[in-house]
Amino acid sequence: GAVVSQHPSRVICKSGTSVKIECRSLDFQATTMFWYRQFPKQSLMLMATSNEGSKATYEQGVEKDKFLINHASLTLSTLTVTSAHPEDSSFYICSARAFDWQNTDTQYFGPGTRLTVL
Amino acid sequence: AQSVTQLGSHVSVSEGALVLLRCNYSSSVPPYLFWYVQYPNQGLQLLLKYTSAATLVKGINGFEAEFKKSETSFHLTKPSAHMSDAAEYFCAVSRNSGNTPLVFGKGTRLSVIA
């Protein structure tokens, strides 16, 4: 249980185009999902908190008009990178809340999406 | 604000040797602490977590960690390293088990030498 998927796993796009990344909770409902970004050989940095049915909360320094987040259902959150540029190339990882076998509120991570902007 | 410091960006051990990855945290509230493992080009897999129950936490793949409040530490150990343990390990802290985002350390890359 508590499986989170991301699609696509890898995407290459041209500069100026937009890319949508999906994060799905496959066997549970998630009212809250988080989006993280990881640069090569670095740690994960929180970009935004995605809440079902409401606007996302962005971290300081993250452009909300560039990184559009939509959490339209309890199993799906999407991150759209608009007008992508090479500096947006990164590994994007989402996480979703679920209760584990000990009934503890836990975050489960997706496998990540590697975005390369040419 | 919460923060995590992982001592040593790279640790190298021989196969069969003890693995010790260090993590110190800073938190103004009782923390929830986590260790995750990341294999190349993959997402994060939860190894173990501390949520104010037992201070010695056992996780998957033979890993365990001990929460020491007096030392503000949550070091990860494994008695005997396997080649398959080679990966990047992240320590993380949050104010709550699930509904608050995690603050990650910079990671420690573990290499296992045959």
Tell me the radius of gyration of chain A.
Answer: 14 Å
How many angstroms does the end-to-end distance of chain B come to? 41 Å
- On the 0 to 100 scale, the average pLDDT of chain B is 91
What is the helix/strand order of chain B?
EEEEEEEEEEE
Through-space gap between termini of chain A: 37 Å
* Largest sheet composition of chain A: 7 strands, mixed
User: Judging from the principal axes of the Cα atoms, what is the shape of chain A?
Assistant: globular
Structural class of chain B: mainly beta
Largest interface: A-B, 25 and 21 residues
Question: How would you characterize this protein structure?
Answer:
The complex is a heterodimer of chains A (118) and B (114). Helices cover 0% and strands 55% of the residues of chain A. Chain A is globular and about 45 Å long. With 118 residues, chain A is mainly β. Chain A starts with a strand and ends with a strand. Chain A contains no helices and 11 strands. The mean pLDDT of chain A is 91. Chain B is mostly beta strands and 114 residues long. The model of chain B has no long low-confidence stretch (mean pLDDT 91). Chains A and B meet through strand 5, strand 9 and strand 10 of A and strand 5 and strand 10 of B.
Short description:
With about 120 residues, chain A is mainly β. Chain A contains no helices and 11 strands.
Can you tag this structure with a few keywords?
A: mainly beta, 7-stranded mixed sheet, 4-stranded antiparallel sheet, 55% strand, globular, B: 114 residues, mainly beta, 6-stranded mixed sheet, 5-stranded antiparallel sheet
List the helices and strands and how they pair.
The complex is a heterodimer of chains A (118) and B (114).
Chain A (H helix, E strand, L loop, with lengths): L3 E4 L2 E4 L5 E7 L6 E7 L5 E8 L5 E2 L8 E7 L2 E6 L8 E10 L5 E5 L3 E5 L1
Chain B lengths: L2 E5 L2 E5 L4 E8 L5 E7 L5 E7 L5 E3 L5 E5 L4 E6 L8 E8 L8 E2 L3 E6 L1
Parallel strand pairs in B: 2-11
Antiparallel strand pairs in B: 1-3, 3-8, 4-5, 4-9, 6-7, 7-8, 9-10, 9-11
